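BUG: 3D viewer hangs when loading the predicted structure for this chain

Environment: internal workstation, default settings.
Expected: structure renders.
Actual: progress bar stalls at 90%.

Input used:
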Amino acid sequence: MRIGLYPGTFDPVTHGHIDIVRRACSLVDKLVIGVAINRDKGPLFDLEERVEMVRSEVVPLGEPLGTEIVVHPFENLLIHCARDVGAGVIIRGLRAVADFEYEFQMVGMNRSLDNSVETVFLMADAKNQAIASKLVKEIARLGGDVSKFVTPAVDQALREKLLSSKA
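Structure tokens produced before the viewer hung:
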């Protein structure tokens, strides 16, 4: 069984993430979505909210291809998470050259920690290349319309979260 790990903070999950998940499903039999507990990034949504958001938005995407999708929160090293879930491949999405520079360093470090785990890069679809969770949150925070970047359920969750944080 080919197991892939697609890690990220998913704060929130965007159409870009969903596109990468859809395409990764054709590469593996089981796709683990690793939701990172990254306190340094100061997420808007707590871990449970992000896990549930990812679960509801992406788990059904595997069904047409027969790919099992599992959501797995993690706080350890990425390479340790890959070992924990039995992944032979880490899947990363790239939007721009700046992403590649960071990811190139990560691959080198991960390969030095465990060279049995490969990394596969999937280029973001052209219509998703500008989408970044950080920018989506900023646009939403400033009252902009993010509906073209996220699903309706995520858009609603963003509105509710931002409204409750103002109260």
